[in-house]
Write a structure and sequence with these properties.
By secondary structure, the chain is α+β, with helices and mostly antiparallel strands. It has four helices and 16 strands. The longest helix has 19 residues, at about 215-235. The chain is globular.
Length: about 260
Amino acid sequence: PQVNEEISVKHLPPTEPDPHVVRVGWSLDSCSTQLGEEPFSYGYGGTGKKSTNCKFENYGETFAENDVIACLVDFECGEEVEMSFMKNGKWLGVAYRVRKELLGGRALFPHVLVKNCAIEFNFGQREDTYFSVPPGFTFIQHLPVAERVRGTLGPKSKAECEILMMVGLPAAGKTTWAVKHAAANPSKKYNILGTNAIMDKMRVMGLRRQRNYAGRWDVLIQQATQCLNRLIQIAARKKRNYILDQVLCPLVAPGG
């Protein structure tokens, strides 16, 4: 089948220079949230770049507030799957060609990465489309249920949730173990909580943000710590599996 989805972009009030990030595309269910920054994760961003496995290349056009991006996947191209995008009804060309044998029968899922933006999706539930659908393509919601693939289901109750807490001195290998354990158990969909994990996601065009914070390491750590505290508060209300990968400094009594 040939499938399609539409995404309408809305910016939220800015709080820093260049505050808005929107990247849309497709990825496997086993991929992380960082669209376009690992294998089998294919994104197209508002900067006019496409990316997969952290490799960014020029593609299409830049897009911003009030633009509508259509994400197209064509599975009827022989031995390949073709992914392309449209901006406000204009086709931007094929962005990715992936051999079906590399996907190994695994399904591609719609994926969006945003920062400080509100977005609106159309999977086919709207009576009117933003722009006309290209011939031969069908909205995901219009596909028969038998042709859809269900994503991994999370824990049904908090009693079924897992929380693993890493214990050890700095540089003892806790983060390495956590990442490997999460990768070895994809069905668990572990969320790793820690400043290292947060900073790894604070990338600019695929590069770790540390390179853009020369001389301001304390600022980066402070921001990552604030994010971690907020994520822990959110995690307490969600039914998910977590790995807490954070060194907790012991309290020392005065004079002791």
